[in-house]
Design a protein that fits this description.
Length: 643
């Protein structure tokens, strides 16, 4: 007898009609062809459900909506009959699953009442509408062709499906949580898996989450809500795609008088090859002609494990920013500390954050009051205004001695329009061994962090001997509060990532490249910061690193692949749609804003780092032309059209 895996969709549908016992689920069948989730609803609910699909395109990619009472679907398959061509159906009454059946033929009777509502209540398909939705089984063949193991197929199991804590965008009577499928993918194949599935948006497209399932509200991968558990192999990473079973959850939550669906894992087999599915009507246009929009996958957190997606073109633009800021007009040899993609990974982590604490302040001028320098605060404020524009909470951390000065700095930045809105300015003081934990987490509970990202920009960092040194190797510990303790404590708190931005190696966070600093930087053995950050961004001037982060966040905010991943493949609610209409470029640093803010710092008595001059310069470099030209170069790289 011919193996079912070798049969065409039409041949398989015939066997399904005959209740062939070999076909328990459709996973692994009709390789290379699209499969479809099927939902059948009363006509009165059809328009609402179609709008619900359009609002949630990743879990509910609409392939075809039937006419009322129509049992065929000619655009998807010839000689098909939705009443008999699925291995198993679910029957729902008032949102409750009442039974599973192998055929819907018994529901084909015509109503004689003339009332559409009564026809539905009497159990008739005559006034019901069928929705065919794309299914991830449609891309499994392409995964295997690419050499990516499909564990559920290899293990002969139905794919694992999970109800998440992520709410879909509601429409009419329909609202429910997102459901996802999970497939273990070897870490080395993640980019390939993302690219292959991205190319088929009507089979749910690229993943909506990669990494720790708890971030989706999934407590235990061994206990799927639908389907069967799938075993992991060493080196596998859990990858989650939006799932059409979301529509079943929509039935359960909306409680229609009568509804039908496929049984999870028992799909409708289409005659359309998955390679051509992009030609069907869709709100997710093909990017085959624009390979720059293909996403790539990068890890930015190991505790918890978390990956993000960004298009190739946006990643290339952020990498260009990283290359631009490594210019070294002060000839410090800072390029030797460069680590590729630290800017990109930091921006990805910040993009996924909700509450960010930024710290700056390097009291190098210990003979003056205030002792601080002009490098650091401008970059901090540039990052803060972009983060605020993205809806993040932002806090500025400073030394207790500099609290009033930083409050004045923030107030003036808001007045001049440099900073989008006022942000709290707080100090951290060491009051015992648990001080850092209690500062970072509500009631000292590591499961309830106040911040999910800490950024230090041109912030004096603790050396191996416990002291703090400027570039001339002078100890300035008496002017520095132990904010380093927060970065050390954050290493042990799941969900908090850290970034350090520096231009000499003695800044907080640059402990990640400590050995390079010791070997390659003047007096590096003494001054090197001993406290690492997850990401160490090096720049010729630290402010430039802050500007680059702001630009990188803008690029991510305008990257369709990244925004889709942030939203878990769901649409935008009306409030978010209104917010998206604003001109994000106005939140970028500009020559006018940065010059204005530098004048504020000078007014507050803050001096240039290298020379100690009280004037319009940073690290001995005058604002015009050096810093103004750098800002324009970053803006050009950010705003130029991407392909």
């Amino acid at each position: 007898m011919q193996q079912t895996a070798d049969l065409s969709p039409a041949e398989l549908r015939l066997l399904i009609r005959q209740n062939d016992p070999r076909i328990r689920t459709t996973t692994g069948l009709a390789t290379g062809y699209q499969q479809a989730n099927v939902i059948i609803l009363p006509s009165l609910l059809a328009n609402d459900f179609e709008a619900f699909c359009r609002s949630n395109p990743a879990p509910l990619p609409l392939l075809y909506r039937s006419q009322s009472g129509e049992t065929s679907c000619d655009p998807l398959a010839t000689d098909a009959d939705i009443r008999s061509d699925i291995p198993q159906y679910c029957v729902y009454e008032e949102g409750q699953l009442v039974k599973t059946v192998s055929s819907l033929q018994s529901y084909s009777g015509q109503s004689t009442t003339g009332s559409a509502l009564q026809a539905v209540k009497s159990g008739s398909l005559s006034d019901m509408v069928s929705f065919y939705l794309g299914c991830s089984f449609g891309f499994e063949g392409k995964l295997k062709e690419t050499g990516i193991p499909v564990r559920n197929v290899d293990q002969g199991r139905n794919v694992s499906m999970y109800r998440t804590s992520v709410p879909c965008v509601p429409n009419g009577v329909f609202c429910c949580p997102l459901v996802v499928t999970m497939r273990p993918v070897p870490a080395g194949f993640l980019d390939a898996a993302v690219e292959v599935t991205h190319q088929n948006p009507l089979a749910h497209g690229a993943p909506v989450h990669i990494g720790d399932p708890a971030l989706l509200g999934i407590p235990d991968l061994s206990k799927p809500d639908y389907g069967e558990p799938v075993a992991f192999q060493p080196g596998d990473v859990p990858v989650f795609w939006a799932c059409g079973v979301t529509a079943i959850e929509a039935i359960i939550h909306s409680r229609p008088s009568l509804a039908f669906s496929h049984s999870p894992g028992c799909m409708f087999l289409c005659d359309i090859p998955d390679s051509s599915i992009k030609t069907l009507p869709s709100e997710s246009p093909s990017t085959e002609s624009n390979p720059g929009q293909t996403p790539i996958c990068l890890s930015f957190s190991h505790n918890p494990l978390f990956y993000s997606l960004v298009s190739k073109s946006a990643a290339a633009s952020i990498r260009l920013l990283e290359e631009i800021i490594i210019d070294d007009p002060g000839q410090r040899g800072i390029r030797a500390l460069f680590v590729k993609d630290e800017l990109l990974r930091s921006c990805l982590a910040l993009s996924h954050s909700s509450s960010v604490a930024i710290t700056t302040g390097f009291p190098t001028h210990y003979m003056h009051s205030p002792p601080d320098e002009t490098d650091g605060p401008p970059g901090a404020i540039a990052m803060a205004t972009m983060l605020l524009s993205l809806g993040k909470q932002v806090t500025l951390l400073t030394d207790s001695r500099a609290l009033e000065m930083n409050e004045a700095m923030v107030t003036e930045a808001v007045r001049k329009g440099v900073l989008k809105a006022a942000i709290p300015v707080v100090a951290f003081e060491d009051r015992g061994p648990e001080s850092a934990l209690h500062f970072l987490c509500h009631h000292g509970d590591p499961s309830r962090p106040r911040y999910d990202h800490l950024v230090a920009i041109e912030r004096s960092g603790r050396a191996e001997d416990g002291n703090y040194y400027n570039m001339r190797a002078i100890n300035i510990k008496h002017l520095v509060d132990p904010i380093d303790d927060l970065f050390i404590a954050a290493k042990k708190i799941p969900g908090i990532t850290t970034t350090g931005i520096g231009d000499g190696g003695n800044e907080l966070g640059m402990g990640k490249v400590k050995e390079k600093v010791k070997t390659l930087m003047p007096k590096g053995d003494l001054i090197a910061c001993n406290v690492p950050a997850d990401f160490a961004i090096t720049a010729g001037v630290s402010n430039w690193g802050g500007y680059a982060v702001a630009c990188g966040l803008y690029l991510l905010n305008t990257c369709a692949s990244h925004q889709r991943y942030l939203r878990r493949g769901l649409g935008l609610d009306p409030a978010a749609s209104r917010a998206q209409l604003q001109d994000w470029s106005t939140n970028l640093p500009s020559v006018q804003k940065e010059e204005s803010f530098l004048a504020t710092l000078v007014h507050l008595g803050i001096r240039s780092g290298k020379t100690g001059n009280l004037g319009m310069e940073v690290d001995g470099l005058t604002f015009h032309p050096t810093h103004s030209e750098m800002i324009n170069r970053l803006l050009d790289a950010t705003l130029e059209p991407r392909t």
